[in-house]
Design a protein that fits this description.
This protein folds into two domains: about 1-30; about 35-135, Roll (Nuclear Transport Factor 2, Chain: A). The protein is globular and about 80 Å long. The protein starts with a helix and ends with a strand. Strands 1-2-3-4 form a four-stranded antiparallel β-sheet, covered by helices on one side. It contains five helices and four strands; from the N terminus they run H-H-H-H-H-E-E-E-E. About 45% of the residues lie in helices and about 30% in strands. The protein is of the alpha+beta class and about 140 residues long. The relative contact order is 0.15. It has helices at about 1-25, 35-50, 55, 60-65, 70-75, and strands at about 80-95, 95-110, 115-130, 130-135.
């Protein structure tokens, strides 16, 4: 009988620890705007690196997508560059806009330039519309 009560007591303790952990997790702050934008910026660049331009296009603001069709967007990125890597260097946000600096590595896809690789800092603007963050590109 004592073993039964001991096991029941241990199970109750474990359950209370799990419930406490879940309550703390539920009450914790959601990701900051800077964290949300950094994640979305990297997801967008990963889509570009993977040559999944349709997914990259989905990160553009609704107004941009309404004005610029996917085929035109795909043409703007061109075929002469192979995007290799992206790293967020900084994110600075005001109320509904963020400035993002990313270090982007790339390689040229042109004859006589195949081995030419480079990396440079790209600066992006992200805007919040109805609780979602969108890459802002001028059309």
């Amino acid at each position: 009988m004592i073993n039964c009560w001991s096991s029941l007591f241990q199970a109750a303790n474990l359950l209370s620890v799990i419930i406490t952990f879940l309550m703390i997790a539920a009450c914790s702050d959601p990701a900051t705007p800077e964290q949300q934008v950094a994640e979305r910026a990297l997801e967008r660049w990963q889509a570009i690196i993977d040559n999944d331009l349709e997914s990259a296009y989905a990160f553009l603001s609704p107004a941009y997508r309404q004005a610029v069709p996917l085929t035109m967007y795909q043409g703007r990125l061109g075929q002469n560059v192979a995007w290799r890597d992206a790293e967020v260097k900084s994110v600075s946000c005001a109320t509904d806009a963020c400035d993002v600096a990313l270090q982007i590595s790339y390689r040229y896809n042109m004859p006589n330039f195949e081995k030419l690789e480079n990396s440079r800092l790209f600066k992006e603007k992200w805007i919040r519309i109805e609780d979602d963050w969108w890459y802002f590109e001028k059309s």
